[in-house]
Amino acid sequence: MLDDHQIVLDGLVAWVERNAPDLEVAVRATTWLELVRSPRFPVDLVVMDFQLAEPVSIESRVRACRAAGAAVIVVSALDSREARDRAIAAGAAAFVAKSASGTLVLEVARLVLARRRGATSAVVAPAAGRAGEATFAPWLGVDEAHGTASDDPAPPPAPALSSSELTAVRLYVGGRSTAETADAMGVSYETVKTYLRRVREKYARQGRPASRKSDLTRRVAEDGLLE
Known about the structure:
Elements: H1 6-19, H2 32-36, E1 45-49, H3 58-68, E2 71-76, H4 81-90, E3 94-97, H5 102-116, H6 126-131, E4 134-136, E5 142-143, E6 148-149, H7 163-173, H8 178-185, H9 189-205, H10 213-222
Parallel strand pairs: 1-2, 2-3
Antiparallel strand pairs: 3-4, 5-6
């Protein structure tokens, strides 16, 4: 568990220890470096705060955990669509608002761990989706309208992207502007605009609109193109 507010971290750890004998808190950390330098890292699952005082983006933290083999649940008091989209697009399994109950966090954690083991189980609280307290990665197969997990989630079709289109969209939805994406790729601003336009057109032809950046981020996350 990673949260730079000690009182929040202590409270969540205590809640898990009291209410989830099936789960073990292997590492508790108030800084990113404290987590990744722990001799017990990587772990199966990291529950981390969206905002930290240190200058390490949520995208960098989530992707580093995923690369090490750990699933991620992001929790945050900053509950906005942009925050949710950024967390899920980076590869988080779920985003849970800090206004949610500790019970919900445990239920989401159990679902994520079960899915990683290949199990199917509708363990998410029925009120979670209706209350809007959690957002889930597509691979979890959660029906957020009812807060249940389906046994056979059907992934949406992914459009065929060229290597340049894929690179451009990954950089763009990862937090870079169009100009910054162009600099990173060593191409012109107009070239990147063309790549992104083609990606959006391919999604539109599938009936999956991606005209806004938030929509494009969601489409890319649905297709697992940031893996």
